[in-house]
Amino acid sequence: MILMNKIRSQKSEVRSQKRRYIHNVLRTSYIVLIAVAVFFIAAGNSSCNVYKFRDISIPDSIKTVKVNFIENKAPYVNPQLSPRLTDKLRQKIVGQTRLSQTNNDNADWIVGGRITNYAFSTSGISQQQVATNRLTVTVHITLNDQKANKNQEYDVSRNFEYSGNMSLQQAEASLGDEIIRGLTDDIFNRLFSNW
């Protein structure tokens, strides 16, 4: 009987210790959660005069943007590239920033550019045959900050690989969306994240 009472007492003590342990873990988790929330709230409120969203930095004074048509000045011209790239860049800026798109020349920022390179080359050979080819596209971008009265220029270049069995026309058709998406992302990042 004494042994049974001792076992019951030990089981009761173990349950009590488990409850205390769980209570302590929950309390600690709650404190950590509150600390993390306070940190993110404080970090979010610390940027007083610069708009930030997804690593985007735009001074508060900049409200409007004009994106001029990106001309194709490359030796080889893909006629679909300029209009599609211009349109996609405009959509991305309006969709992912607080800037308003305008067609006026008095916009706070005026973005312009030209395609300077659109070249094909062999990038891989296998058994004395062309295995892969590369399309290289380079865009020269200008940012005219009319509020600060300064200009910035960037060159954005991206390579696109495709099978050596494809013709130029097949490669352009196959890579079209990827080219537009990749170049738009790179231009956007240079303009708004400065990298």
Keywords:
single chain; 195 residues; alpha/beta; Double Stranded RNA Binding Domain; 2 domains; 6-stranded mixed β-sheet; two-stranded antiparallel ribbon
What's the short story on this structure?
With 195 residues, this protein is of the alpha/beta class. The protein has helices at residues 2-45, 81-96, 168-192, and strands at 50-53, 56-59, 64-67, 71-72, 100-101, 109-126, 129-145, 150-163.
Shape: elongated
- Using the CA coordinates, give the radius of gyration: 29 Å
- How many strand elements? 8
Estimated structural class: alpha/beta
H/E series? HEEEEHEEEEH
Average pLDDT taken over every residue: 82
Strand proportion, as a percent range, falls in 25-35%
How many domains comprise the coordinates? 2
CATH topology of the largest domain: Double Stranded RNA Binding Domain
Distance between the termini: 78 Å
Q: Report the biggest beta sheet as strand number plus sense, adding barrel if it closes.
A: 6 strands, mixed
Report the CATH superfamily of the largest domain.
Lipoprotein like domain
Helix content: 40-55%
**How many H/I helical runs?**
3
Q: Would you state the CATH class of the largest domain?
A: Alpha Beta
Q: Uncertain regions: pLDDT < 50 for 5+ in a row? A: 42-54
